[in-house]
Amino acid sequence: MTYHVDLLLDDERRIASPVNMRLVLRVGGVVVAGISLLFIVTLFAKGRDAKFQSEAAQAQWARLEPQFKYLMELRTARTELRASSLLMESFRRTRLPLGDELAALQAGIPADIQLQSLRITQFAGKQKTSTIATRSYELHLTGKLTGDDPKESVDSLIACLSSPAFSNRVEAVSVPNNGFRKETVRKTPAGEPRTVWFFELNCRYRPRSFE
Amino acid sequence: MKLSTHNKQLLQRGLAMTGIVGGVLYACFHLLVNPMRQVYGQELRQLETCTDKIKGAQIGLRDLAVVSNEVFRLQAELGVATNRFVLRPVLGSTLVNVQGIVEPIAAACGLQIDSWAERGRTAIPVEAKDAGVVLERYALEIGASGSYAAVRDFLQALEKANPYVCVTEVEILGRPENPAIHRIRIGTEWPVFGERKETPPGNKPAAPGGKRP
């Protein structure tokens, strides 16, 4: 082990490091300045690039915009036209072609039934599961029977209204209370009494939705 | 421990240099980098907005032909339907128009019309606030006399002549004094143009049409 006596005064002291502080500071300064410059240049380049891209995009948008506006106008027009068509179609969709219905009834009613009245009425309603409005029809028939088996004739009429010819439109067919009865009638007050069967029949059609 | 004069000078110069460099960097940041970053950010946002608009427009424009065809088809269909089948008043009277349609059909079918009764106009219970055409239902009751076959033929002919007319009610009552000629009541609903309710400004949709670019 060697010993030495430190005789240096304070102002004679030098830093023991072999690296020159001045050089370190200069190099550090240059590096910081370089990095800063690089950062600024990069930022500037990115900014310019973004500006060019933005200008290109705006130019592209300027080319597309008239077509896009036209598309928007078409879409608005389509919405209006669809809504108008829906209104128009609601007439066709909800109507029951009663001319055809009368023709079908004429073909289906047994020959020994003599109709006294026929009434088809419509009433407004709403769908069970939604608020969509519907139009429903109900047929009310009254008539008399002259055949030997009046019940069979009425059953035959009910079967006709429940047959495939009607079943896509008809929901339910029913004879109301006291809707099938017999009465004794005379053609003249002094005439021979005669038994005549009368019937009533209700037929409910399936509701037709407006939408 | 006291520093030597040389080291003190060195430290002071170092501190001064650090201060100057820091100041220059700070000034650079605030005067150059920060505005540039703001401009860059603004450009990027503009670019992003514009790119989104372009993408959306490009996606939308793929359907241009489909939408265009649908609009022209709907316009044509609706034009035909409204021109032919929606009633227009004749000298302010819709009834006159209906009479002009119904009477020849009734005469051809052997149905004698005895009375006409207007039952007013009602709105169509359809949610169609966007509709360009305002339609209403014009209700009319016709009293007539004729045979069952005449009513049947009349209704079939009427429904064929106007596929939008809706026969809402039919009543055929037998008459003991004349079994072949019945008393008939027919309820009808016809499409008519209604009046557009003014929409508040701003809610009004853009007018359709315009020239194709």
CATH architecture heading of one domain in chain B: 2-Layer Sandwich
- Overall geometric form of chain B: rod-shaped
Name the CATH superfamily assignment of one domain in chain B.
Ribosomal protein S6/Translation elongation factor EF1B
Number of E strands of chain A: 6
Oligomer: heterodimer
CATH first level of one domain in chain B = Alpha Beta
**Largest sheet, spatial ordering of strands of chain B:** 1-2-4-3
User: Could you tell me how far the N terminus lies from the C terminus of chain B, measured between alpha carbons in angstroms?
Assistant: 86 Å
What's the end-to-end separation of chain A, in Å?
Answer: 108 Å
The best one-word shape of chain A is: rod-shaped
Low-confidence stretches of chain A: none
Structural class of chain A: alpha+beta
Could you please describe the fold and organization of this structure?
The complex is a heterodimer of chains A (211) and B (213). Chain A is built from four helices and six strands; from the N terminus they run ααββααββββ. Chain A has helices at residues 21-94, 98-108, 150-162, 164-167; strands at residues 113-126, 133-145, 170-174, 180-186, 193-205, 208-209. Chain A starts with 20 loop residues before the first helix and ends with a strand. With 213 residues, chain B is of the alpha+beta class. Chain B has a domain at 89-193: Alpha-Beta Plaits, CATH 3.30.70. Chain B is 51% helix and 21% strand. Chain B is built from four helices and four strands, in the order H-H-H-E-E-H-E-E. Chain B starts with a helix and ends in a 20-residue tail after the last strand. Chains A and B meet through helix 1, helix 2 and strand 1 of A and helix 1, helix 2, helix 4, strand 3 and strand 4 of B.
